[in-house]
Write a sequence for this structure.
């Protein structure tokens, strides 16, 4: 949950965005950095949690776009939830996902999500929770527009019920799906 004291000490004009994941092509951090530049909103500040082989290239990209003061690479954090809770929005820029656990984690912290429509269940989560603002497509331009829309409205903190994503419910859904496929064979 958001800590009131932490929010009171923040500059209310700043829009704090957080993203997390391994710094690899799949996660689309290059698209996110480009989107921050295209959005053209100096209030947007991005913290990226994660490490990986693309760190130097992504830092160079941010510098090349004049975003070094607004894009921070914080490294891997084994406890990312406080960062999620402090952020105005979590951003998912993945080109594809097996399952976007970080999105559920951010939503569980009450943090709205801005995301590209990556394959892997994100659209179902967005429909079920109402806390996800999806870009029109997987491009930097579409993500920049979604970020701009978010900045204009500053979506309220969200409350979601994670019961639908519990182990028993997911296993039951897989069993039903696999049982239905076996019956068709």
């Amino acid at each position: 949950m958001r800590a009131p004291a932490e929010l009171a000490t923040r500059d209310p004009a700043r829009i704090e965005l957080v993203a997390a994941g391994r710094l690899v092509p799949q996660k689309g951090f290059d698209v996110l950095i480009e989107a921050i530049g295209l959005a053209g909103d100096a209030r947007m500040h991005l913290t990226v949690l994660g490490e990986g082989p693309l760190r130097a290239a992504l830092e160079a990209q941010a510098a090349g776009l004049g975003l070094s003061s607004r894009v921070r690479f914080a490294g891997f954090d084994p406890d990312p939830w406080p960062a999620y809770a402090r952020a105005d929005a979590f951003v998912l820029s993945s080109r594809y996902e097996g399952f976007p656990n970080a999105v559920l984690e951010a939503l569980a912290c009450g943090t709205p999500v801005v995301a590209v429509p990556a394959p892997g269940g994100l659209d179902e989560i967005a429909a079920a929770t109402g806390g996800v603002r999806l870009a029109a497509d997987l491009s930097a331009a579409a993500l920049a527009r979604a970020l701009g829309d978010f900045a204009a409205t500053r979506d309220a903190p969200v409350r979601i019920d994670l019961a639908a994503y519990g182990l028993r419910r997911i296993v039951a859904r897989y069993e039903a799906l696999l049982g239905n496929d076996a019956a068709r064979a």
Remarks:
- Strands lie at 15-20, 44-49, 71-75, 89-92, 113-115, 132-134.
